[in-house]
Design a protein that fits this description.
By secondary structure, the chain is of the alpha+beta class. The protein is 37% helix and 25% strand.
Length: 208
């Protein structure tokens, strides 16, 4: 009896998922499958960014976009722990408001969970990737690497010749994307004059 019940349940799940896929193919943007036997599953699906059910969608659930002024406080929350650990430089709300156009955010269902800042230098047509951070609950999912790749793509569009970053902990993310270790004399003078390099390593990628 138990085996027959399991087979019926599996058949129901397959049919249910097929119906959700069919609905998306017919134009429904998102369909959700929730287990009604779990207490609070509807609230968990609605109120959490990752959700706890199964979602099928015909649109992109993850995206990287330029930040807007409405993202300031969310970015501040993402940067709070890295700033405490001194893995990124301090950024005030005022700074974020004044420089928000330099930030990219990684969103899951429009909820920003990661960010980075692109600081342009005209001296040698370079750009620095700074304030790279991901919300603790969303780390180890490749989000940081995707933000770096998006930064490189934007630098190419702007005809930049060098993308670089100063890092103390996530050097493997940069080397995996073709960055190599640089020396301070390869950076813009303005950057060398204002930064203490003793605590960080420099990684850069020259763009053709």
């Amino acid at each position: 009896r138990w085996l027959a019940k399991e087979k019926l349940l599996n058949l129901f799940t397959v049919n249910q998922l097929s119906a959700l896929v069919d609905a998306c193919e017919r134009g429904v943007e998102r369909c959700h499958s929730l287990d009604s036997s779990i207490d609070g599953i509807l609230l968990g699906e609605i109120l959490t960014s990752a959700g706890i059910g199964i979602m099928i969608t015909n649109s992109s659930f993850e995206s990287i976009r330029p930040a807007s002024i409405g993202d300031v406080h969310r970015i501040a929350e993402i940067l709070e722990k890295p700033m405490e650990d001194m893995s990124v430089a301090q950024k005030s709300i005022t700074y974020l408001e004044q420089h928000i156009e330099n930030f990219l955010v990684f969103c899951i269902d429009e909820d920003a969970v990661g960010c980075c800042e692109l600081l342009p230098f005209d001296e040698n047509q370079s750009v620095e990737i700074g304030s790279l951070a991901v919300k603790e609950t969303h780390r180890n999912r490749g989000i940081g690497k995707k933000l770096i790749a998006a930064s490189v793509a934007q630098a190419k569009q702007q005809n930049r010749k060098l993308v670089f970053a100063l890092t103390t902990r996530v050097r493997h993310l940069f080397t995996a994307l073709g960055f190599s270790k640089l020396t301070p004399d390869q950076l813009p003078d303005r950057k060398r004059e204002k930064y203490d390099f003793s605590a960080s390593e420099i990684y850069g990628r020259f763009l053709s």
